[in-house]
From TrEMBL, chains A, B:
The gene is cofD. Pathway: Cofactor biosynthesis; coenzyme F420 biosynthesis. Its EC number is 2.7.8.28. This is Phosphoenolpyruvate transferase. Belongs to the CofD family.
Amino acid sequence: MRIVVLAGGIGGARFLRGLKAAAPDADLTVIGNTGDDIHLFGLKVCPDLDTVMYTLGGGINEEQGWGRTDETFRVKEELAAYGVGPEWFGLGDRDFATHIVRTQMLGAGYPLSAVTEALCARWKPGVRLLPMSDDRVETHVAIDDEDGERKAVHFQEYWVRLRASVPAHAVVPVGADQAKPAPGVLEAIAEADVVLFPPSNPVVSIGTILAVPGIREAIADAGVPVVGLSPIVGDAPVRGMADKVLAAVGVEATASAVARHYGSGLLDGWLVDSVDADAVAEVEAAGIRCRAVPLMMTDLDATTAMVREALAMAEEVRA
Amino acid sequence: MRIVVLAGGIGGARFLRGLKAAAPDADLTVIGNTGDDIHLFGLKVCPDLDTVMYTLGGGINEEQGWGRTDETFRVKEELAAYGVGPEWFGLGDRDFATHIVRTQMLGAGYPLSAVTEALCARWKPGVRLLPMSDDRVETHVAIDDEDGERKAVHFQEYWVRLRASVPAHAVVPVGADQAKPAPGVLEAIAEADVVLFPPSNPVVSIGTILAVPGIREAIADAGVPVVGLSPIVGDAPVRGMADKVLAAVGVEATASAVARHYGSGLLDGWLVDSVDADAVAEVEAAGIRCRAVPLMMTDLDATTAMVREALAMAEEVRA
């Protein structure tokens, strides 16, 4: 079975760990969000791709969900001693090496997809990890600054530095409209038996991937079950601050509203958490098959059970 | 008093420490060799400039004479895990930060001289440190490979990886003939009261600086005392493997031969070590004032005494 997964960072990565356990023989292609990518200290940092790669490759800091295990921060301390920031982005020494290798390869002319493949040759994540695009896409968030002036900041600045503490007026994946899907992305979707949307952020993770022209259409036209899992449980994001960016695109932070945001043109099935059982009827009324099951990825067993529910729903949809 | 010093790495940096002690009120300009510079992992590394900066700024690893004190090697270990080398060049985590800042600034369009000034704003070396040139100069060494084929390797590969263990057939500062002195270099020489050649490598350190068109001429024409100190003591280099590269340019590894290699057109005074007292007459016969004094930089006091001898000789020459 060929499964394509659209993934953001932490949630997507943990979901994929469950998918590998639930479907050990499946051929897995992950289309990773690169709208979070940022240039720091002249280095290209791809947080979502790295979180997937480190998580599946056994190098992740399990507790925080991103970055490397057993990490130190000597380089960052030295950069700060030079007065070079930002200090709010936590790049560790081991992590730096990944960005150094990536930047060197990009500088030598390799596209991001080739670089990602080279990095994965070390990590062996057990999936084919593709960036959504080799072209630069950068998610910007419109906020009001301290003087009340509207301004755009990089998504990482909004998310990491500001911790989504101010309202997001708009979320714009800058460059997405000109971006082309990376080599293999459309082919993987066309050849997929199932497409899954993990409980990643529907705006800045999966939404950004879908904003690359051709990807949404390829999924809608693939003629295979497309099943998603709600990142909202009990009217709040399971993790992160998805409600802040949902508000910016005019979508309520509910399991039902997110499903309807994706829409029945894209989504065939949707899993909501057991606490949101009353959303099922509303989602089904929108033409999307829905079921309420436990959706908290508390451990690998719980995550694997979630994935099994998603795959079961895909088979129901197919039948 | 305005003093200009042409400096390589370790020897030059230690000499400068003595100079600061011997002439605390002098205005010191250091013209640093950049022929050792190398791109590693996509980053611009300037070993000689950094050795001077770290040594005078209190950040040097005193024992080895280069690199940072209290250093770790996490980034390098990770790069090796990616299969990315070279492994023979010892870049530590703290040191990496310097190269990251430098590379980022160069990428933003700043010339190396401006970058060096920015880095020195942190280290406050107490001297004005100028790269010999903002243009790329790279010292290559012609050697025979294992199959007996003549090939050119980067100086660092010859020096660090091969530890000068094979004969050097030629030493070529690639790009030097097209390089321009960095801003301030010729001005500093023109305004100097004294020019000093520390016991740095006469071929790959001071020789490379002198290979930048205009620098040798400016020193020869400055009309001020030019005094050097022999890096060869008792027919062997005090440190490093200067004899190997001297052979490549047809110069004997003796205190006298090095003075005559610089020549009386450039050099007014020359200090040899006490053990080389019999070289004095030969050097003076070549038109260069010479004296035998202790030249081992065993500690700051010994180094300061050496510098005082050099400054005293400069005043004799002037008179």
